[in-house]
Amino acid sequence: MLPIQGIHSVTGQCSSGRHLTASIPSTTCDYPTLPSGDAAQALLTRAVQVLRHASVADTSRATYNVGFRQFCIFLAVSKLTLSGLELPDLMALICTFAAYSFFFRGLQPSTIRSYIQGVDHHLKMANLIPRTLWHPTLNQVLLGIDRETSFESALINKSKLPFSLPLILFARSKVLMNTVTFELYAIFAALCFGFMFLFRKSEFLTDKRGRGKMERGIKSTVMSDHVLLYWGDVCYPSTSRFLPPTPPDYISSFLPRSKGDPLGKGATRFFPRQKNSSFCLVTIIYIYVKHAGLRPGDYFFAGPRFIVHSTLVSNTMKAAAFAAGLSPTRTGLHSLRVGGLVSLFAAGAPAHLMTLAGRWASESSFIQYMRATMEQYETISDALNRIDLVTVQHIKRLYTAP
To answer: Of the CATH numbers 1.10.287.110, 1.10.443.10, 1.10.4080.10, 3.40.630.10, which one belongs to the domain with range 165-358?
Structure first.
């Protein structure tokens, strides 16, 4: 075993003639050791592979795996194999794969890009290519796909419709039959909870078996331990068996990890009760907690009495949208997040509060969902119809002054 020696004995000579030993760290502490010869190289190579593997998030890796499998199927259909293909051949083939995915499989541009990134990732991880597959010809093909898609349908016809509070109440009366059982009330509470905190699907709902999302050992779906109810300064977890008889002043929800928080720093959001209103979202969650019998370690909507899974909530929303005369295909669980955002925008909430509420990185992340209400358009109309707002004198003073 050869110890990794310190560099205190190595001195450099700078242009002024002074030695650099003062800036070199001391070796009074013990350093780890490495095996000698080929064993050390193998160990370090393995460490590099582990770090390269950790550079990709679990959700991205799952998409990459699907993309690479689809590429392998494409190779089989084309009667080709990866062995013997040089990088120029792969670059030409990946363009053909993009065209095949668009014209013959009808995939969206974003999905095609993710698949190509998956192929590129797998080939680089296997050291089968010396550099990336992305090249100018591929970029031109993808740009053509973008333009073909924009000619076929406008962005507004593809984006999810907002599922606002009136639609949630409509779903309660028309689809959930006014929540006559706990199971139906739990679905209604899940709709309200997702709308309140602008949650993504996997952030508050599990699958049919009650399994939440986990990334690198961290559960990123809201747990019962992470939802707290506050009466003044007194805090109760949602797993508490004895809660005060009146609704709480506010509730909080903690997400250990989310799409906008890749480093897992966690995010806590609060939601106060509307004390002077006949309808209050906090009260709905309070009633759900009182009857759910949640235990420590449960997901918030996967308690012992009933699992409110994502498919159940999504189907409820689609049924409500159809009954209201809206498109079910443009309604999904992401519609709750969009509905909360559009409601904040309609209320005139500043951009930084909308960013905070939805845990977005910046305003540019959600600007595509913005739709103004008629009242907001009236504000625009009022401003543009004023003849005294920007007069000729204003223009002379502001734009022609020396």
So the answer is: 1.10.443.10
